[in-house]
Design brief:
Two copies of one chain form a homodimer. Chain A is α/β, with parallel strands linked by helices. The first copy, chain A, is about 25% helix and about 30% strand. In chain A, the strands form three sheets. A seven-stranded mixed sheet of chain A has the order 6-5-4-3-2-1-16, covered by helices on one side. In chain A, a hairpin with a 2-residue loop joins strand 10 and strand 11. The longest helix of chain A is centred in the C-terminal third of the chain and has 11 residues. Chain A is globular and about 70 Å long. Chains A and B meet through helix 1, helix 2, helix 3 and helix 4 of A and helix 1, helix 2, helix 3 and helix 4 of B.
Chain lengths: ~300, ~300
């Protein structure tokens, strides 16, 4: 099961009733956080999710509303007695930016490993998460993230018996391990059926619409997409500041056909996103306004 | 009139219902902010006070819970179209720390002037505020702040007439200006009575008790003092981490006799500060538990 939560939905600045846009996932005891603005730790606390298992933090870009909460979060993770290494993924310069912010959080009980994204599309496998960063189009270097939980094929008992594989290795083979014993090699493909459909979530904010976004979000279980403006007449502003309108996001969703599309990163001037949803749903019916703390439990499909 | 607001009351980390400790004053169109943790801009917005007139930001010390909200606040002040210089006052190194945090807020439409405190007690006069920083005792260099609005003596019409001072100069003299006209000099002391009682507010957090705190808070209109722990048995912890219990704060108040003492900077483990107030009030009756957004309008005494 993959738990996901849209921690906040505000863009630019945190508001009393709308915290900054950030996204968190939980899978198999390991959490991934994408973006961490001022107040993201409040949103995590409000949701009741734990700070300690955050193993990876991905940054879309270095505008303050997406990273200003990092020093506070790191200290709170330290107070939660985390000692395991933390991985931070972000655009070129991520280590410098984080170290600069750490002027107020210099001592932590865990090590930080940095991964700097250099290509347009880059893939990382961490703790069962397949994370793909893809470059988008903002006024600074910015990435969207696809998070996938892949699922092995079904374990075929008859094949395992056919190859005389001892039972004690079955679960390790099911988890993708290769086993060596007495000069013999047992590989997962010997006992696993065809790969089954996994889970896919795409998070994308601070960008103009791009074909790569729809490609990444294609048939995703959830597509979280920025929609800075809902009001008509804001198209030019969206273009100028390299953001999207609700309708541009919906068009990306229409091309990608995710099970659900959630809007987020609302302009502080946008009071009620719900008001514009009728129009949005005309473009893509499975569109919803993101709300702070909105979450979903994603399950693998039945066999 | 001096408006004051305790923006938050949490210590260490912001909580969903308790933002980090910070204090703001408004006087004559100019605001002073003391400390700016993660979420302080949310508290200001919640209170409905304006970002634009913040002319001075004072930092007690550089622990993250007192400064982590600065980059976001600076950007929000910029978005509020502030263009006037901002003064930032803090312990030695303030310019370095702020510039390091500004890695995510490099471009602002206003200039920042830094004042580094070097002595144990230092005084600054800005926009009618008399701000006194006084060194306290924490595990890093830390200062408390006294904010005073001084009040000139009453204007004596009979004296002004006696000296034949033209009426057009009366208000300028009342405001403390010296006037030169046709080789004559008119000075405020010619027409003003004895200095009257002004207003005094003291804010002091992250320290062990010290005599200087009571001296500064002596007969203040408001004394805002840290009280990290209310529960009995936390005295040793308070000593170890260089904080205070509610009762230690109350003893400082007892010596200082302010009109009111508000506790703040509660430990995240302290759920209901109210529960301990009976005991606190036995030490100093005018003690109150600070609450997020608690404010006061301080008026000059009637003549």
């Amino acid at each position: 099961m993959l738990d996901v939560c849209l921690l906040g939905t505000s863009g630019m600045m945190p508001l009393p009733k709308r915290l900054l846009t950030a996204f968190m996932t939980r899978y198999n005891g390991s959490s991934v956080l994408i973006d961490c603005g001022e107040g993201t730790q409040i949103a995590i606390k409000k949701k009741g999710w734990s700070f300690k298992p955050i193993d990876v933090i991905c940054f879309t870009h270095f505008h303050a509303d997406h990273i200003s909460g990092l020093p506070g979060l790191l200290l709170t993770m330290g107070n939660a007695e985390r000692t395991e290494d933390l991985t931070i993924i972000g655009p070129k310069g991520v280590e410098n930016v984080v170290n600069s912010l750490r002027v107020i959080a210099p001592e932590l009980p865990f090590k930080i490993n940095f991964i700097e994204i250099n290509k347009n599309i880059e893939e990382f496998i961490i703790n069962g998460y397949k994370i793909t960063a893809f470059k988008v189009n903002h006024n600074v270097t910015c990435y969207g993230y696809k998070i996938e939980i892949e699922r092995n094929g079904k374990f075929m008992i008859d094949k395992a018996n056919e190859y005389n594989i001892p039972k004690k290795y079955w679960s390790r083979l099911q988890n993708g391990e290769i086993i060596h014993e007495d000069g013999k090699e047992y590989t997962p493909d010997m006992v696993l059926g065809e790969k089954r459909k996994g889970l896919k979530v795409v998070y994308c904010t601070d960008t103009r619409p791009l074909p790569v976004i729809s490609e990444m979000a294609c048939r995703a279980d959830l597509f979280v997409c920025e929609g800075m403006y809902g009001e008509k007449g804001k198209e030019a502003k969206a273009k100028e500041y390299k953001h999207m309108t609700f309708y541009e996001a919906a068009k990306l969703a229409k091309a990608a056909k995710p099970k659900q599309m959630w809007l987020t990163h609302y302009s502080p001037s946008l009071i009620k996103p719900e008001e514009f949803m009728n129009e949005v749903k005309k473009i893509y019916p499975h569109s919803y306004p993101g709300k702070d703390g909105k979450s979903l439990e994603l399950l693998f499909e039945e066999d």
